[in-house]
Amino acid sequence: MRQFFVFVFSLVLLFSGVTASASEQCSSLFLVQNWEVSSRVRKNKFVTNRDLYEYREVLHTDFMNSLSKLTPDQHWVDLGAGKANAQIDYIKSFSNPLSAAQATGVAYKLDRWFSPPKFDGKLQIKEGAFEQQPTATWKKADLVTDVFGVISYTHDLHTSLQKVFDLMNVKGELYIFTTNYHTSIKVGEKKSLSLMDFLATIEGIHVEGRYGTIKITKEIENVIVPSFELVKYVDDAPPSRTYIRSDLVH
Question: Domains in the chain: how many in total?
Fold first, then answer.
């Protein structure tokens, strides 16, 4: 159906004598891709019950040590937290929940019958797209995790990364587990970078790890993510995405 729509739309443009500019073509592509992403996200076909044991197994080996060092006034944000099982496991490991760090789970959509425990205010769930969350009003994060979450699935990777780095404290750590080579960023006519290689080009962060198991330490206050835009999105779990530096698009 989508291919038929694109075909008909192309005929309309051809016979109406409309010649779209390169920027208009880009905009049309982005609108189609955004619809495709939103359609998949609305179905909520993701794993939502990953526990802390699984986080320990798949994230960078420094993760559990960093988590254990968090103090009660610090903050752990989990992107794509599902039912926040990992954060619930973490808080339950304390005899007194108030001894745990503040935990915020970002979940696009919760099951209607699911009501997560609040642990005297230590756990919050932010429901909805991360890109639209008012993260500037949140408590700064000392630890951020993403296990096949926002960073793997978002169409607007630039905004998501920028919001994450803005949210983090200096010396804060971001732990990512993703399929590294499903995401590529074109930075020249013949050069494409994997997600991890692209992250390593951003000034003010230190990147470690390999094969999609990534640890990032924020080293300066104002980290600026170079602009890039989506040019290809293939729906999968996780999707395959191709981006291009914005100054190379038009």
Answer: 1
